[in-house]
Predict the structure.
Amino acid sequence: MLFILFAFLLIPLANGLLVTISNKDPRRDVNGDIIDCHSGMILAVNGVYYMYGEVYHNNTGFGPSPPVMFPKIAVYTSPDMVTWTPRGEAISDWPTKPYGTFFTPFAIYNKPTKTFVLYFNAYLNGCCERNWGIATSTDGIHFTLQTTNAVGKYSVVDCNALMVDDDGTAYLAYTSEAEDHKVSIEQLSSNFSSIVPGENKGLFPDRYIEGAILFKRGTTYYVSYGSCCCFCRGGSGAVVYQSQSINGPWVRQALDVNCNRTDAGSICGAYGDRNNDPIIIQAQGIGVSIIPLADGTTAILWHGERWLSAANNNPTCPDECQPQVAPKCAEEPGYIKGEGYSYWIPLEFDNDGNVQKFAPFVDSFTLDVAVNFGVEHLN
């Protein structure tokens, strides 16, 4: 299976595997096919890496794309972050099957119940219903749908991230429709399968936002997000907030870490009323994964989607929310959305715990990943 080495390279070590991950070559599964798993994350549980994301094939992101609407939720598994095996769709049945559009899946693991819990944006009848879908699984591959109409204090727009705190409490960060796309945080029930009423953590101050990311490093909580993008070619920036409590107060880092602007408080973007900013990595930040390393520490892997990066894309099209009848966004023959590229990079931190500014495009990087691990590295 030499074709796998175009995107991944592994070298066995005593305590793990030295894995080189490429951002410039297609990531392929064990069958040699390009991995179609976007806007998601990787969850490490009991010696297995589970990758969840949107599967597109050659379909668009919105509306009727006969005979069904896309995306759905794909699952891949790996013992080593290199050899990825496709496991099909995470959810085999839902009320409007085969119609339905599912975005931005994120999974966590409930240790007491030994259950995988998956949250995603559930549009059963097209765009854009303001609900979460929630599904559960005992094996991380085959999920049973629990609901498609979960709501919090605010209606969800899209993009969400889950985090399990040190005390076992889980939280959900999401982009709401409140005050024109502001981010909020909800607390989950003990089984992670519902929202706890009255435990919303309020709204972050910035508007017109997507790609909410939530994680904890040491004793510090982090929230990151960028400007609305809507499958935009130019990507989005990444502002970062920190707090010593999930309840706040949250303090923003002065500068957007995925942008070369130097004016404090700015949010970079390449779509809508924020555009033409000097974004460093032309990708939309969509999530983070906590990757266990051989030395017992973890890497916090940032995931960005490089929309309109697949071969044969229309170079005049700035984003894929434009009507497909528009000349500048007419689909090119041979363009397959599901073969678009992602951008993965470990976040770096300074001595004060600040997320460091992104470097220019990194072709590849190396991690000494753990193998045969337990559940101690979960986010």
Observations:
- The domain at 2-369 is CATH 2.115.10.20 (Tachylectin-2; Chain A).
- The chain has one domain: 2-369.
- Confidence is low (pLDDT under 50) at residues 1-6.
